[in-house]
Design brief:
The structure is a single chain. By secondary structure, the protein is α/β, with parallel strands linked by helices. It contains 13 helices and 11 strands. β1, α1 and β2 form a beta-alpha-beta unit.
Length: 329
């Protein structure tokens, strides 16, 4: 039986390295892998369906699913996970010292339906009691003007979102026209060491560790998805892809754990893995639905509350049955 030809677009993560270099094969598949910048990859997949399988924004996938847009079938494979307390940026002399101070302020986001921003707004609302409707929200590119939303929104009553087409969030923050910016990527002034701008949390690592210990949540940013027609032609691909991604990730964790050889250009990598396992168990970067149910259901709740999803979603309707059965045995 001839192998099925599939194209895969994904970031060059170590936990997919063995798939990218061909060391690990997807059973029954001849894989052509492309390593692309995140924004380009997402746009080309969501807008034009250029790849058979692609890494994609979790927020965009759930927004489309809530709108009954069935073009894509997500798999519970999560190549990117990042805590987001560190993604709140403020003016150093703006009078903001704690998250609660953002109530009633002017806050910028690159896209309302950005996954990182959904998590951060969820933290503000649920962990710090900030009324999101009290904030004057502004949407623009982080460092360049002209960024637009990629999905239709259903904003909650009372939420005000102003689209700014001719200025960047960084520009507005420095000018004092914004009090804060929520962004997955640090704004340019932060990277340049501009003292006029800083993170809200001076030590975000400590806050994020406390959050992880308290909640057990590990925020998921991206998923791997298939084009619907690819899935429907050969539904067994869902499980074969899942197994291959899971094996590639397991091999990556083995490399991190190896104390005899430094596979990563960082000190104390095995120690960091031990800490992650204390927090999240033996597989701290687990794939599948059940190991991630709390995180995923929290995100779906935030996405609905914030108008990214026009209706509530369940995990059982989001992911295909072929990969759900694995974790119900």
């Amino acid at each position: 039986m001839a192998k099925i030809q599939l194209s895969l677009a994904i970031g060059a993560y170590d936990h997919v390295r063995d798939l990218l270099d061909g060391t690990l094969q997807v059973a029954g598949v001849e894989l052509t892998a492309l390593r692309l910048p995140v924004e380009e990859m997402f746009y080309r997949f969501l807008m034009h369906g250029e790849f058979d399988v692609s890494e994609v924004s979790l927020a965009k996938i759930v927004a489309l699913a809530a709108q009954d847009d069935g073009r894509f079938v997500p798999l519970p494979v999560f190549p990117s996970r990042v805590f987001r307390h560190s993604s709140i940026y403020i003016r150093s002399k703006g009078g903001i010292t704690r998250p609660e101070d953002l109530a009633g302020k002017r806050v910028g986001v690159p896209e309302w339906a950005q996954t990182a921003a959904i998590y951060t707004r969820g933290l503000l609302a649920h962990d710090y009691g900030v009324d999101l409707a009290s904030i004057q929200w502004h949407q623009a590119g982080v460092n360049e003007p002209g960024r637009i939303e990629k999905v239709k929104l259903s904003l909650p009553s009372g939420v005000r979102l102003t689209v700014v087409a001719d200025r960047s969030l960084s520009e507005m923050l420095l000018a004092g026209d914004l009090d804060a910016v929520l962004s997955a990527r640090p704004p340019a002034p932060i990277l340049a060491g501009d003292p006029r701008v800083r993170r809200l949390f001076a030590d975000p690592r400590a806050v994020e560790l406390a959050y992880a210990r308290k909640t057990g949540l590990f925020p998921i940013m991206h998923v791997v998805a298939m084009r619907r027609e690819v899935y429907e032609r050969n539904r067994w691909l869902a499980m074969n892809l899942f197994k291959a991604f899971d094996e590639a990730k397991a091999r990556s964790l083995e490399r991190v754990a190896d104390m005899a050889v430094s596979f990563f250009p960082l000190p104390w990598a095995p120690d960091e893995l031990r800490l992650a396992r204390e927090l999240f168990g033996d597989d701290p970067w687990a794939y599948g639905i059940e190991p991630n149910r709390s995180t995923l259901e929290t995100f779906l709740r935030y996405a609905f509350e914030q108008g990214v999803c026009c209706r509530p979603l369940s995990l059982e309707t989001l992911f295909p049955p072929e990969v759900q059965a694995t974790f119900r045995i």
